């Protein structure tokens, strides 16, 4: 749930962008926004995603199906747009058109990387190595300009009543 809706009851186009950002993280992590069966620190996807990003452990947290299949450049672009969508301030979030364009770019990066890997591994079977992700995630600047801490604990408390976005 977007911070402005949780605090003020206001819904805007940027609220939709926030919700879409949460969906992007659900896809990446392969789980729902809230899961009461997980340890407390991992129950809220948003909190876990932000912690994983800030600690540089996002590769270990993503859906196991995606590990080795997503190109580092694609993951970096995907994280960039997903994290910008969940910016605390609505005016800090991109327009939905920008989200679409950036996701298309992420897809192009994936296709280009797959094509290059296909030339190296003629059998067509390849996996991106975990070591490649470290440099990309270390260089990920998506959190530098965002302020999540203002809303972090409030979301976890208030959102328990509305576990669907």
From TrEMBL:
Lineage of source species: Eukaryota, Viridiplantae, Streptophyta, Embryophyta, Tracheophyta
Keyword Membrane carried by entry: yes
Species of origin: Gossypium darwinii
A molecular function (GO) term: protein serine/threonine kinase activity
Membrane topology (UniProt): Lipid-anchor
GO cellular component: plasma membrane
Domain Protein kinase residue range list: 1-107
Pfam families xrefs: PK_Tyr_Ser-Thr (PF07714)
Protein name: Protein kinase domain-containing protein
Keywords, ordered alphabetically: Kinase, Lipoprotein, Membrane, Serine/threonine-protein kinase, Transferase
Subcellular location: Cell membrane
PANTHER family: OS07G0668900 PROTEIN
InterPro entries documented for this protein: Kinase-like_dom_sf, Prot_kinase_dom, Ser-Thr/Tyr_kinase_cat_dom
């Amino acid at each position: 749930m977007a911070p402005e809706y949780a605090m003020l009851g206001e819904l805007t186009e940027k609220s939709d962008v926030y919700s879409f950002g949460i969906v992007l993280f659900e896809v990446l992590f392969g789980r729902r926004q809230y899961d009461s069966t997980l340890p407390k620190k991992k129950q809220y996807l948003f909190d876990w995603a932000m912690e994983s990003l800030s600690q540089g452990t996002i590769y270990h947290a993503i859906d196991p199906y995606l590990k080795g299949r997503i190109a580092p450049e694609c993951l970096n672009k995907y994280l960039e747009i997903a994290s910008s969508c969940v910016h605390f301030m609505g005016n800090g979030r991109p327009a939905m058109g920008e989200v679409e364009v950036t996701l298309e770019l992420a897809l192009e990066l994936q296709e280009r990387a797959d094509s290059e890997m296909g030339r190296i591994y003629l059998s067509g079977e390849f996996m991106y190595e975990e070591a490649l992700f470290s440099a990309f995630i270390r260089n990920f600047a998506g959190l530098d300009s965002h302020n999540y801490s203002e809303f972090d604990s409030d979301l976890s408390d208030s959102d328990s009543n509305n576990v669907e976005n």
